[in-house]
Amino acid sequence: MKTTIITNIKKNYFILFFAAISSLTTAQESPSISFSGSIDAYFRGNLNAPNDENAIAQGSSFANLPGFSLGMANIIASYEGENFGAVADLVFGPRGTDAIFASPMYSLTGSILNQLYVYWSPSESITFTMGNFNTFLGYEVISPSGNFNYSTSYLFSYGPFSHTGLKVDFDLGNDWSAMLGVFNPTDLTEFNPTGDYAFGAQLGYAGQYINALSSQGGFEIDYTGGFNASESFYVGINAAHYSESETDISFSGFALYPQISMSDSSAFGVRAEYFAETGYFGAIGASDADGDASVFALTLTANFDVGALSIKPEIRFDNASEEAFINNTADPSKSLSTFFLATVLSF
Q1: Quick one: 33-346 is in which CATH superfamily?
Q2: What is the DSSP letter of 26?
Q3: Intra-chain end-to-end CA distance of the chain, in Å
Q4: What global pTM score does this model have?
């Protein structure tokens, strides 16, 4: 009888022990793999300039091809564990090629990698990230699914697109955050052929960010943020200044992004941007004799969502201080007006 009782107790003990282990294992977060991305295409037509072999575009990046044109296919594979993970972000198409313009070192590998990094969070307040990741500066991003406007700003186009290196993100609590990083020189995303390094920093509070980047004699400071004026009205803000210590090259700019939601599936927005360059930075095209030029660009965009598909009609007006464009008779002009119709599918 005693033996039977002891045996039953041992059986019950082992049952409870393995049940506890099973419960603990189940409670832990299981690693997961997910896929996301976007596909976009667009139509672009100048309203006051040629649309044939003499077609001209604004001086900002992306969406510069005439007629019906291709954007990019963006495929993102993510692996997420309990406190670590990795991201492989692949891009195909003209927009993707432009986004990684300085990464052709290794043929196919260099031509399709937008981001490739691993991260580790030893605690809830610290995350280490190493690899190639999109920049922390600026209001806009490479993927059109992350922007309200389809064409991009001068500020976005002439800041860095990506960095390769190591960064540490800190959650400081009470809506405060910070980041410190060391990277290859700007736009050298596959490896470092120079032996020089860039240094970056960010301080954030409640969605407002001050960013700084120092790379090979160039220094950029950037503010990115915005505020909700009401439940349906938002205003984004971006301002930046870049200069090089040993040259006269610099740029400065300021952009406002007021956006109003009309319903869950429709919204309207404006991007109003002023951008100035010195020392033939090259953003605005034909600069004056001193290499100085400026441009004011006004972009009006509507967003109509049909499920995961976003339809974006857009009109953009660029007015430069110099004759950076041409008109319908191929004569130099200070202004360019353009119509876009873009479709962006996110998944």
Answers
A1: Porin (2.40.160.10)
A2: H
A3: 65
A4: 0.86
